[in-house]
Design a protein that fits this description.
Layout (H helix, E strand, L loop, with lengths): L21 E2 L10 H14 L9 H17 L2 E2 L2 E2 L4 E4 L2 H11 L11 E5 L11 H7 L2 E5 L8 H11 L4 E5 L13 H11 L2 E5 L11 H4 L3 E5 L11 E5 L49 H15 L1 H12 L2 H6 L4 E2 L13 E4 L6 H10 L2 E2 L1 E3 L2 E4 L7 H15 L3
Parallel strand pairs: 1-13, 5-6, 5-7, 7-8, 8-9
Antiparallel strand pairs: 2-3, 4-10, 9-10, 11-12, 12-15, 14-15
Helix pairs in contact: 1-8, 2-8
InterPro entries: Aminotrans_V_dom, PyrdxlP-dep_Trfase, PyrdxlP-dep_Trfase_major, PyrdxlP-dep_Trfase_small
Protein name: Aminotransferase class V-fold PLP-dependent enzyme
Keywords: Aminotransferase, Pyridoxal phosphate, Transferase
């Protein structure tokens, strides 16, 4: 990825969000930029007349998106981007199901081993393992969030301590989806390799807004939904599957995933051989003629903005807000590198007397959008936000929390 060290300025003009809306909730769903919106309109217009559609058009549309995502996560092989390791999937649950389906094939897998999860993980990263644990005699070890502040350093140490010789699989995100606390993926990846465990990462709440280097982390699988920090359409996700999955078992036997499947005149010459690497894990109807151009446009924008610059922008945007909110009795995880908080997704723990849902409703009434998660508000800014959005957040919280 090319590096631009200049400061990123607000990109509000590239979005059509109403002026009176303070949308600090990209962790729930990103708004479409004007560019992504136009890509969707153009795709629909093309689809009104499918005359001239060629067999190769069913395949070529995904090539650019795979390449752009590979660039975003630094997916390389011998110094060259390796988009064949990227599969088109509909969701994180689908990608994690691929991992679960292939866990019985893992060398050395045996009853009594365990799968390591962080506490309060998103359900798609939890439900995936019930069936395979029963089938293989595995158990799940959950590393819960510490009660004390600051939490990040302690949580990371407990996570590393939980990974040992009897660990079969580790599932961990770059940042916790509710609280924005970061996990040191480089250290987790190294520990997993030392004990022979697979590492699967749900990158949904980080990739696109937080730098992610596949070559350093060396995970076995990375799955990322497209409608949050990738800023693309819903029900379209991207997944990296490493060499451990090269001869694996897909969830479905899609016809497009076989060699020579672009030769429509020979489709009845049934082909037993899959296309290389991660291609076998593609969902059926992977072409997504309308959505794929939208995702491509979103990825191009993110590579231009760059995740490191997005982090710098969102850090500066909320820098003065945190002390003001802490003066109201709130808590926020401190900045502590890869074991502290992210800047694009931050958990704000409310005082004990405050009801998170009531606070969220008060914010919503003033057109400030955040999410309530357990005892915290999840604040998730992006480059379309400006200081007025943060002022609105602080003003409402000051009014609501000062009443109690």
């Amino acid at each position: 990825m090319p590096t631009d060290t200049s400061l990123l300025l607000t990109q509000k003009d590239k979005f059509t969000l109403p002026e009176d809306i303070h949308y600090l909730n990209c962790a729930t769903r990103s708004p479409f930029s004007r560019t992504v919106e136009q890509a969707g309109h153009d795709a629909i217009r093309r689809d009104t007349n499918p005359f001239g559609l060629r067999p190769d058009d069913f395949f070529s549309g995904t090539v650019r998106a795979r390449t752009l995502f590979s660039e975003l996560i630094n997916n390389q092989n011998a110094g060259t981007l390796d988009p064949e390791r990227i599969a088109i999937v509909p969701s994180v649950s689908y990608g994690m199901a691929v991992v679960a389906r292939n866990l019985p094939r893992k060398p050395g897998i045996k009853a009594g081993q365990h799968i390591v999860l962080v506490g309060s993980e998103f359900p798609s990263d939890v439900y995936a393992w019930d069936r395979v644990c029963t089938e293989l005699g595995l158990t799940v070890t959950t590393v819960d969030m510490p009660a004390e502040f600051p939490k990040g350093a302690i949580w990371n140490e407990r996570l590393l301590d939980a990974i040992g010789p009897d660990t079969a699989l580790v599932i961990v995100p770059p940042v916790h989806w509710m609280y924005g606390i970061r996990f040191d993926l480089e250290a987790v990846g190294q520990r997993a390799r030392e004990v022979g465990a697979w590492l699967a990462i749900d990158g949904t709440q980080a990739i696109g807004a937080l730098p992610f280097d596949l070559s350093v982390i060396q995970p076995d699988a990375v799955i990322c939904a497209g409608y949050k920090w990738l800023m693309g359409p819903y029900s379209l996700s991207l997944a990296y599957f490493g060499p451990a999955f090269d001869e694996g078992i897909p969830l479905e036997e899609g016809w497009m995933n076989r060699l020579d499947s672009n030769q429509f005149h020979r489709l009845m010459d049934y082909q037993p051989v899959y296309r290389p690497k991660a291609y076998r894990y593609n969902v059926g109807e992977q072409s997504h003629f309308i959505q794929m151009p939208m995702l491509e446009a979103a990825l191009e924008q993110l590579l231009d903005w760059q995740p490191a610059r997005i982090q710098t922008y969102t850090e500066a945007l909320l820098r003065d807000a945190w002390p003001a909110l802490e003066n109201l009795g709130c808590h926020v995880e401190p900045i502590n590198g890869s074991r502290g908080r992210s800047h694009h997704l931050v958990g704000l723990w409310l005082p004990d007397h405050a009801d998170p849902m009531s606070v969220q409703q008060a914010l919503q009434a003033e057109k400030v959008s955040v999410s309530a998660r357990a005892r915290a508000l999840r604040i998730a800014p992006h480059v379309y936000n400006i200081p007025a959005d943060v002022d609105a957040l602080v003003n409402v919280l000051t009014k609501v929390l000062s009443k109690n």
